[in-house]
Amino acid sequence: MELSKVSLDFDGSVALLKFNHPEALNAIGGEMLQGLADAVAEISGRGNAVRCLLLTGEGRGFCAGANLADRGGNERRAAGGGLRNAYHPLLLTLRDLPMPMVTAVNGPAAGVGMSFAVMGDMVCASKQAFFLQAFARIGLVPDGGSTFLLPRLVGWGRAVELSMLAERLPAEQAFEWGLVNRLYDDNDALMDGAMDIAQRLANGPRSLGLIRRAYWATWHNSYEQQLELEAQLQGQASATDDAVEGRRAFLEKRDPNFSGA
């Protein structure tokens, strides 16, 4: 399948998706957005054959945000429609994937690139990476869901500071704040480590996708609603082959061999 300005490869049951426009630090334009949507559709279409998504950038950057040169010369063009029509469906599809998502931040993650980076269930970064809420630098408002995610990940004060001052957040500080789960010395170690995590998740039980769904729901459910959702998801999980295998492995004192079914 030919994809525009992204690349998609499969390593066993891990889908490796890369922003692939390194000459622009993987800034996102219309072609890349379509490429991302096509790639995610391909991943979803493979069903249980793909059990984890690993998202990273080609070259020395993760994603430098929106490609401002892609605006067709109209400096006052309203951007809201583009967000609703292109970005939002993609972001919602990523949120609803029934599999874990790992991000490997190998360089600048700026603007909406930062929004994609922090969507990962596991966020990995090299010490060469940094995060930047760049929007205020060009007179815009954070988007890509960052005003939803950041206060919940790093707290209200830090989120507002990042967005209003538009200062770089080095990967090491992001790790200290809890925005990054795993920190690596360089990009080679990053990709080895992120792929190891992705493979571990891909070899995990089908319930990992249900766990992901449960945690996303905590941000809009009441306590009572979350208790009910846990009961519903537990009912689904307990009926899977993986739950049967997990119980057998526990009783037989061996490691489980999950199939994702």
Topology:
Layout: E1 6-11, E2 14-19, H1 30-45, E3 52-57, H2 80-95, E4 101-105, E5 108-110, H3 112-118, E6 122-126, E7 130-132, H4 146-154, H5 156-165, E8 169-170, H6 171-177, E9 182-184, H7 187-202, H8 207-217, H9 223-238, H10 241-251
Parallel strand pairs: 2-3, 3-4, 4-6, 5-7, 6-9
Antiparallel strand pairs: 1-2, 7-8
Helix pairs in contact: 1-2, 4-5, 8-9
What is the H/E order? Answer: EEHEHEEHEEHHEHEHHHH
Global Rg = 19 Å
**Shape type:** globular
* Proportion of beta-strand residues: 5-15%
Number of strands: 9
CATH topology (fold) name of the largest domain = 2-enoyl-CoA Hydratase, Chain A, domain 1
Q: So, CATH architecture of the largest domain?
A: Alpha-Beta Complex
Number of helices: 10
